[in-house]
Amino acid sequence: MPAGALPCNLGKLEMINTKPNLQSLFEPQGIAIVGASPKPSFAKSILNNLLSSGFDGRIAAVNPSYGKVDDVNCYKCISDVPFKVDLAVLCVRAENIQPILEECKRKSVGAAQIISSGFAELDSDEGRARQQQIESWAKDSATTIVGPNSLGVINLHRSMVAIGDSRIPKIVPGGVSCVFQSGQMFTIMHPLIGRGIGVGKIATTGNEANVTTADVINFFAGDPQTEVIVSYSEGIKDPKNFALACTHARKQGKPIIMLRVGAHLEVRKGISRHTATLAANSYERDIQFLEGLGVVTVDSAEDLIETVVAFTTSLRPQGNRVAFASFSGGMGNIMADLILSTRGLKLASFSDQLRKRLASVLPRFANSFNPLDLSAQSAFNTDVLSSCMQVLGESGEFDILLWGRDLAVSIDDESPIGIALKALEAEHPEIVIIPVSQMNGVYWGKEVNGVPPTFAGRPFLQGTGLSVRALGKVIDWHALS
Q1: Please, which residues bridge with residue 31 across strands?
Q2: What parts of the chain have a pLDDT lower than 50?
């Protein structure tokens, strides 16, 4: 489909062909792990995670070779499970999937997540035939299929972690929900939770034989627990439904942040052996299409993470005029260059009147232009910092204040700068205050206590280039509203 062929105001959202039992994927009361055994495997990891995460529903293992797996009752087939199975997670060989799907149909299973690989991504007639069989089967079934070639599903609001990986962080539920074609992308929850940002739901869709990224985005758009939607895509499989889903999300005020890979031919070849996404070859058209729909596009996992943080920490700025202040002239120079080079952002130019007022309250070794270098000596003087922030707040000459510091360490509310920034925020709520650290990553100093670095309960942006790019994306998105 040509880029831009579909307008954003697409009218009736009910046209979206999404099955209602995506509810069974994210809100199951009963889960069966097919292929579970005591041996190390994806199935075993999924079972362990469900047990350790505190899932409040019923769990069954399915494997004819065992009566129990880790104290969980194990049944010969899905039909023998004595409770309603909303979600079946299939971890068996590809050639055994079809008869198990028939059992799911007889059992009235709501959703089947196929972890198994061995389908179209094999780039063989046999693999393509298997996937075609699943696609045809799904059209005539009430059971929704997610996958194949996926990693699982997560809903932290239910403490449900049905994912084939043993490295699960502390559960912190929140408003960020994700749909990834690549299973490993689920690990975005580690840095987000480490930054103090809760995660809601994560779907891994793999080859998308039935449920597509568009279906999941549409579900998240209507999900009251989701505020920000995140996606990793190797190609937009159903552009019409995708456009409708994006329109739904926009109407709900939910940004979609997408990492769409495949800019180069060599990568597209890799995609064909990863998720067999035929739409991978439409990268350039997809990017134009996405931007026309107001989807925020990024080029790396790092930018994906920082853009999510920016949307959660920046609230909604009233404009794009940016002021930067710190105790470092060097960081100010770096940030000013980046702001001036970023679409959507404007480095505020302080008026002569504002510069004179700043000069009257700042020590002579500080400057009075944007970016502001307050000098390290000012860090100890509450009166100077409070007076400076009061003058800035009264000026009305900027919409966003980026407060820079060297490392991602929380700003103490009782420190001189903490007192000054809190007063500025209270007296001038129209100004969005965002702390930015020059360096990103974990600070291994004496202050490390497992608590994410924050200001007023909101996370820091980290890294100069990452932060400014992310802020530019936020401003651009809000400008479309």
Answers
A1: 59, 87
A2: 1-13, 15, 18, 20, 446-448
